[in-house]
Specification:
The complex is a heterodimer of chains A (111) and B (112).
Chain A: E1 10-14, E2 19-24, E3 32-38, E4 45-51, E5 56-58, E6 62-67, E7 72-77, E8 86-93, E9 99-101, E10 105-110
Parallel strand pairs in A: 1-10
Antiparallel strand pairs in A: 2-7, 3-4, 3-8, 5-6, 6-7, 8-9, 8-10
Chain B: E1 4-7, E2 10-13, E3 19-25, E4 31-37, E5 43-50, E6 53-57, E7 64-70, E8 73-78, E9 87-94, E10 102-103, E11 107-111
Parallel strand pairs in B: 2-11
Antiparallel strand pairs in B: 1-3, 3-8, 4-5, 4-9, 5-6, 7-8, 9-10, 9-11
The chains are: A mainly beta (111), B mainly beta (112).
Chain lengths: 111, 112
């Protein structure tokens, strides 16, 4: 069946450290992947995306890595700040209208 | 200006009642979605509309009926509310199907 991500784990990091959030997907036909950030009381917000013809994409303080061989996606956040505390979702799409979201990872940033 | 808006933000109601949630997007997007997020933060798509036409209808009870009066609006009507309907409902839109989605602030539904 279709599944993306892990059951909601929690990651706790010290302010200033780098964070790595991992995600596994099962549909090898997925060709577009997105990371969303959801702060408390708000809707998910786009962070960064990557297509299957790439294995790395960088944004401002964030990097997404895609390993299609093992169907693994990761989000790296450099110099993590308190404002980065949120739930992070990976999502996959196979080119249609349906995007499948992973279970999410809660990131705590300790000051 | 708010890109994707939902009303109401909070909805507390009794079992058996009928309620509606409204969603509007001013981004000019063609595709709109409804998601349900449970207490464990799991996000599951319910419906997807493209240019006012229903594209995706996941295994959602018939008590849930989406309506899209125009491309900018996608409302969700729920009949005979049940305890298990308690969740946060998110509306979203995207310019192209399957691409980056913009989410509304959510409607927190509590069925008593």
């Amino acid at each position: 069946g279709e599944s993306v991500g892990l059951h909601l784990p929690t990651l706790s990091v010290q302010e200033g450290d780098n964070s790595i959030i991992n995600c596994a997907y099962s549909n090898s036909a997925s060709d577009y992947f997105i990371w969303y950030k959801q702060e408390s009381g708000k809707g998910p917000q786009f962070i960064i995306d990557i297509r299957s013809n790439m294995d790395k994409r960088q944004g401002q303080r964030v990097t997404v890595l895609l390993n299609k061989t093992v169907k693994h996606l990761s989000l790296q956040i450099a110099a993590t700040q308190p404002g980065d505390s949120a739930v992070y979702f990976c999502a996959e799409n196979t080119g249609g209208f349906k995007t499948i979201f992973g279970a999410g990872t809660r990131l705590f940033v300790k000051a | 200006d708010t890109a994707v808006s939902q009303t109401p933000k909070y909805l507390v109601t009794q079992m058996g009642n009928d309620k509606s949630i409204k969603c509007e997007q001013n981004l000019g997007h063609d595709t709109m979605y409804w998601y349900k997020q449970d207490s464990k933060k799991f996000l599951k798509i319910m419906f997807s509309y493209n240019n006012k036409e229903l594209i995706i209808n996941e295994t959602v009870p018939n008590r849930f009926s989406p309506k899209s009066p125009d491309k900018a609006h996608l409302n969700l009507h729920i009949n005979s509310l049940e305890l298990g309907d308690s969740a946060v409902y998110f509306c979203a839109s995207s310019q192209v199907d399957g691409e980056t989605q913009y989410f509304g602030p959510g409607t927190r539904l509590l069925v008593l």
